[in-house]
Write a structure and sequence with these properties.
Elements lengths: L24 H4 L6 E2 L4 H18 L13 H13 L4 E13 L2 E12 L2 E14 L2 E9 L20
Antiparallel strand pairs: 1-2, 2-3, 3-4, 4-5
Helix pairs in contact: 2-3
């Protein structure tokens, strides 16, 4: 009986498969190229709409004033968050937009949240859709850092769960 392991045949070395043949750039596109951060009236309108939502969270504006500008789920979440978010001030720092298709814009924003413990930066992501010529917020939620930990205080709007 030997204390040394049996010597086995070495496995063949792993080899890298040959590269795929080059494809033209047009073949990689699946549709129209999204428009990102295009300055103009659309971006200005979205900035103003998001600022109005933050004013509701601050308690400076009645939630009913935004009922026509937000989806029903966002409105209900806004009512809840407005009651819980008293004593905090929100300031929109930056807004990045991406027009994925005509009439639909996805956005991400940085918001400074000031509360009793100082200030933090909270990230938000959302989706706006043009309905009958007016922009309507159909989704707006705070982004989280890690498993279930918010980037800042949870004062955002979570209209759709998923």
């Amino acid at each position: 009986m030997s204390v040394l392991p049996d010597i086995i045949e070495p496995e063949p070395a792993w080899s890298t498969p040959p590269p795929a043949p080059p494809r033209p750039v047009e073949a990689l596109r699946r549709g129209p190229v999204p428009t990102r951060d295009e300055p103009g009236p659309t971006r200005d309108t979205l900035w103003r709409l998001l600022s109005l939502v933050l004013e509701v969270l601050d308690g400076k504006r009645a939630p009913g004033q935004l009922r026509a500008a937000v989806d029903a789920g966002v409105y209900e979440a806004l009512l809840t968050r407005a009651r819980k978010g008293r004593g905090r001030r929100h300031r929109l720092l930056s807004l990045h937009t991406c027009a994925v298709v005509p009439g639909v814009v996805e956005l991400c924003a940085s918001v400074r949240v000031e509360g009793p413990g100082g200030w933090r930066v909270q990230a938000f992501a959302g989706r706006m859709e043009a309905v009958e010529g007016q922009w309507r917020c159909v989704l707006l939620r705070p982004l989280v850092n890690g498993p279930g930990r918010p980037v800042g205080p949870v004062v955002g709007i979570d209209a759709k769960r998923g």
